[in-house]
């Protein structure tokens, strides 16, 4: 991991977070306990605060940024899929954001939601708890069932367990050339 102080503000990274070595974290960023951040992620808190709450996971090549007046908050046990862009928004607890989705300034997604891959949540809308959200521009398609919501919660637990396995078993390879 590469972390940088910016304008005298340093990232705060809980010692129990699992952060891959090529992640870049800049400025006003808070990463809580049992968060996992996977290869190629960039988190840039140079204009506004970014908070990643306990148990959440940020998967490969996602980009997190914010603008003045639009902080970025990821609530507990959220899953941010591969290649997601989060910009000045709020992602609710136990929400899963699908691969390559984009959430822009002012978007507020409540808890227990599923945002499908490739969806674009344009600046400003609010989405209710327990929703399936899809499209460009995104809209609520339906309410999720209790079993759907349990699957969202299970995804966060799976990534917490995977981070522990990586911590215990990942070893860099040294190749002779």
From TrEMBL:
Pfam family, one: Hexapep
InterPro entries xref list: Hexapep, LbH_gamma_CA-like, Transf_Hexapept/Carb_Anhydrase, Trimer_LpxA-like_sf
Domain of life: Bacteria
Stored PANTHER family: DYNACTIN SUBUNIT P25 (PTHR13061), GAMMA CARBONIC ANHYDRASE-LIKE 1, MITOCHONDRIAL-RELATED (PTHR13061:SF29)
Name of the protein this chain belongs to: Gamma carbonic anhydrase family protein
Record organism: Limnobacter thiooxidans
